[in-house]
Specification:
chromosome partition; alpha/beta; nine-stranded mixed beta sheet; binds adenosine-5'-triphosphate; 862 residues; DNA translocase FtsK; Threonyl-tRNA Synthetase, Chain A, domain 2; cell cycle; 33 helices; six-stranded antiparallel beta sheet; 11% strand
Length: 862
């Protein structure tokens, strides 16, 4: 007995300390000393499960909908039966237990009582608005999402009931029926007492007019437009919720800037947007599917499907195309070629100035070099499944609930959660409750990953510029982003980029199409098998679809020997190579060094040309050249872009080290303005491969999945790439911002088809020739012995004699040589008595005047 009463006392003490409401359970505990704690725990878990069970929500939702219907029936019936039921209803709830009393209302005594309360005592017929509240709550609960905003509804219901009841009570004060209810009457009486009849009329009229203006925003100067909304906010709202009986909500307005900002990104964006209104009440968590999804989907995908795969895209720039067409009409094709591409005669600068406007019509058109060239067609590419982002509502719900629960377990409450579904991952954006430290959430990264039992969780805390924290969770079902989708998009087709590359889709399904020319170089890293080669192919294919062979050349370096060999078929269209080399695709390390140095020479030569032309970059230079302001006789020519692709940079650095690093660093530093761009890929992004010099000159970097956080830091200066999920899932760091993309997929057979399509067309007689590079060490070891002449000695002599100018830079430009080699040739020409000695800044005197004399002279020299 004593034991029991002692236990009772202890329990009682606990009970009073805790909460009085729990007093029954502790007493039960007293009788059974250990079990009660368990029992209490179990009950909690069951309640939780009950709250999670969707059936509970459905039942609750249905109940609210029924209440709403009940109220409507009762109110409507009241309009006809109020007289008969008035006396009974005035007696109050006691009539419910009085079996002798009956009511005429369709819903009996309850209907009569409730209607009497709302209509007679409270808000008059404005009480009908309360039905919408129950309807809204019911619908939201039934579908467990924010179909309508409760807060907005509540706000408008409250304001509406007060305003309408007052207006009606005032306007129809003589009527027998209580149009404005008790509340309306009280307010209206008070207003009349304070402001008088006229003052009250004015105030109430103002309310009505203000509401109409707010709702319809009529254009006062043009009454015709009265019915149309002019405010963009209102338009959106009207479209979005045309069936809503209530005015639109502030919520959408608040969200407007963010949505607008994201709108172009939303080709197939879906957002569940939830406000955790009161963190402690889970019922407050509701969600909303914005109209953006369907609207944007229509915009984005219908537009894409309209384009038939067979449709030929003409990627030519509109301007050159029209000019070419215009000329086509006026001249026969053969004459045309001569006219357009014939080199203009040398002119003095003045002549150039004078004749420039007249010649504008005959602009040089580089594409006419291969005027029958056909751009590849879209039907060469394959489509991979449906491009629609599929989402599993249950998966979304479960992940969301788990995120909320996990955070709650660590005492982190959140205000709002929204989800954006991408092709491979879904981004859950959360707004933490006030006072929660971001670092706390960041530290829980692993715990959240564990609780969601998913790989590839990435936490972005905070998302720059959004004021939210992002949690990226991989989708159970991932969709492949077809290259075809990207290339058929308006964004790609209408792009005005110099070198548009279609890389993939962002997490919000925005197509990621950027200009390589502005990047200006790209560093790619990723462990083996994570999508690097596919990424390189995506870049090359997107350039091939948009560029003419005269506008673009690739220098392909492939130490692995197999990855890029597929492109050898387009050698005479798009590839550049060293003179005297058989293969355009470079696989040998020694040749790589020569090629990189040759590119450096090409860069220097291009800078000389730009300097002479007074242009700051290749675009300006080419514009001047095509408008025939530059003289080809002086070595000027149309400069194609050159894109250097190195697949497996690590291999090169391991075998050649500085010899490779130095020219790469030089090119990366300087080549941008002259139209040379680098794309460098590596499997091993370690610091000895991606050195500080290289990194500093590659502001744009891509990371596919890498094996460690250190690798991720090396490439991106941030972690995260080690948590990617492979198969083209990538992070791109551009202008200091990191974005997650799903790389476009283009399979080898597709690339084969594209390459064959181009390769079987007429090309140039040979690949684009890079300047010859001779290792300077080899040059220095030789002397100026005439028997050991440079292989280009005769060509140089002929060029100098033909032009009668003893200038080293002439040799450099016309023979595409580096400064050192041209200088050495000039020295040899001097030793051979063909040119005179160096005269400082002036060109050397040419001692042999004609070609015939030169032939004789050379024969004499043997
Ligand atoms: N964007 C993508 N979408 C879908 N699947 C992809 C994508 N990229 C790569 N994959 C899948 O991953 C495989 C390996 O890709 P890829 O050959 O590009 O890897 P890698 O990084 O170049 O490997 P390695 O360095 O060994 O050559 C592909 O065969 C393909 O099945």
């Amino acid at each position: 007995m004593t034991l029991v009463s002692d236990a009772n006392r202890i329990i009682f003490a606990r009970m009073t300390n805790k909460s009085k409401s729990k007093n029954k359970k502790p007493i039960a505990k007293a009788k059974d000393s250990t079990v009660p704690f368990k029992a209490e725990k179990q009950e909690k878990i069951q309640l939780k499960q009950l709250a999670k069970d969707e059936r509970t929500w459905k039942i609750l939702g249905l109940s609210f909908l029924l209440i709403s219907i009940f109220l409507i029936i009762a109110f409507v019936s009241y309009f006809f039966t109020w007289r008969q039921d008035f006396v009974q209803a005035s007696r109050g709830s006691e009539i419910l237990t009085d079996f002798d009393t009956t009511a005429e209302n369709l819903l009996g005594k309850t209907g009569a009582l409730v209607s009497h309360l709302f209509i007679y005592k409270l808000f008059g017929i404005a009480s009908l608005l309360i039905c919408t509240f129950f309807f809204v709550v019911g619908v939201n609960l039934m579908w467990r999402r924010r179909v309508f905003s409760i807060w907005r509804n509540l706000k408008y219901v409250t304001l509406g009931m007060l305003a309408v009841s007052t207006i009606l009570a005032f306007a129809l004060r003589q009527s027998e029926f209580s149009w404005g209810g008790g509340v309306g009457k009280v307010i209206s009486d008070w207003l009349t007492a304070s402001l008088g009849f006229i003052g009250t009329s004015a105030i109430l009229l103002l309310i009505v007019v203000a509401y109409l203006v707010w709702q319809f925003n009529p254009a006062f100067s043009f009454p015709k437009k009265l019915s149309k909304s002019t405010s963009p906010v209102r338009e959106d709202q009207n479209e979005e919720k045309a069936d809503l009986p209530l005015p639109q909500h502030d919520f959408v307005k608040e969200e407007e800037p963010a949505d607008k900002k994201m709108a172009p990104l939303d080709a197939a964006k879906l957002i569940i947007d939830e406000e955790v209104e009161k963190p402690k009440h889970k019922l407050g968590i509701i969600e909303k599917e914005t109209g953006i999804h369907s609207k944007e989907e229509e915009k984005g995908f219908d537009r894409i499907t309209v384009l038939k795969p067979e449709a030929r895209i003409d990627f030519e720039d509109p301007a050159p195309k029209t000019s070419a067409k215009a000329i086509n009409k006026s001249a026969s094709e053969d004459v045309l070629k001569l006219e357009i591409n014939d080199v203009p005669l040398p002119k003095t600068e003045e002549e150039e100035k004078v004749s420039a406007p007249a010649e504008k019509t005959k602009a040089y058109e580089p594409t006419l070099d291969l005027r029958d060239y056909q751009y590849p067609t879209l039907d060469l590419l394959a489509s991979y499944g449906s491009e629609k982002v599929e989402h599993d509502q249950n998966e979304l719900e479960n992940n969301k609930n788990q995120i909320i629960t996990t955070l709650r377990n660590y005492d982190i409450e959140i205000q709002r959660i929204s989800a954006t579904i991408g092709p491979t991952v879904t981004l859950y954006e959360i707004v933490p409750a006030a006072g929660v430290r971001i670092s706390k959430i960041k530290n829980l990264e692993d715990d959240i990953a564990l609780s969601l039992s998913a790989l590839g969780i990435r936490i972005i805390a905070p998302i720059p510029g959004r004021g939210t924290i992002g949690i990226e969770v991989p989708n159970a079902k991932k969709s492949i982003v077809s290259m075809k989708t990207l290339l058929s998009s308006d964004k790609y087709q209408n792009s005005t980029h110099s070198l548009p590359i279609a890389l993939g889709k962002k997490i919000d399904n925005e197509l990621f199409i950027v200009d390589l020319a502005t990047m200006p170089h790209l560093l790619m890293a990723g462990a083996t098998g994570q999508g690097k080669s596919v990424g390189i192919n995506a870049i090359l294919v997107s350039l091939l679809y948009k560029k003419h062979p005269s506008q673009l050349k690739f220098v392909l370096i492939d130490p692995k020997k197999v990855e890029l060999s597929i492109y050898s078929l387009i050698e005479s269209h798009f590839l550049a190579k060293l003179p005297n080399e058989e293969e355009a695709i470079i696989t040998d390390t020694k040749k790589v060094i020569n090629t990189l140095n040759a590119l450096c020479i090409e860069m220097d030569n291009r800078y000389d040309l730009l300097k002479e032309a007074g242009s700051r970059n290749i675009k300006e230079y080419n514009a001047k050249f095509t408008s025939r302001k530059l003289n080809p006789e002086k070595g000027h020519q149309f400069l194609p872009f050159i894109v250097l692709v190195v697949d497996e940079f690590a291999d090169l650095i391991m075998t050649a080290g500085k010899e490779v690093e130095m020219p790469i660093a030089r090119l990366a530093q300087l080549a941008r303005a002259v139209g040379i761009h680098l794309i460098i890929a590596t499997q091993r992004p370690s610091v000895n491969i991606i050195t500080g010099t290289i990194k500093a000159n590659f502001p744009a970097r891509v990371a596919f999945k890498v094996s460690s956080k250190i690798d991720s830091r090396t490439i991106l200066d941030a972690g995260g790439a080690e948590q990617l999920i492979g198969k083209g899932d990538m992070l791109i760091s551009l202008n200091g911002e990191i974005a997650r993309l799903q790389c476009a997929f283009v399979d080898t057979p597709e690339v084969d088809k594209v390459v064959e399509f181009i390769g079987y067309q007429d090309g140039y007689p040979q690949p684009f020739l890079l300047p010859e590079y001779v290792d300077e060490k080899e040059l220095e070891s030789g002397d100026f012995d005439l028997g050991d002449r440079d292989s280009l000695f005769e060509d140089a002599a002929k060029l100098i004699v033909a032009n009668q100018i003893g200038s080293t830079s002439l040799l450099q430009r016309r023979m595409k040589l580096g400064y050192n080699r041209a200088g050495r040739l000039m020295d040899q020409l001097e030793s051979a008595g063909i040119v005179g000695p160096n005269q400082g800044s002036k060109a050397r005197e040419v001692l042999i005047k004609t070609d015939a004399d030169l032939q004789q002279h050379l024969e004499m020299l043997g």
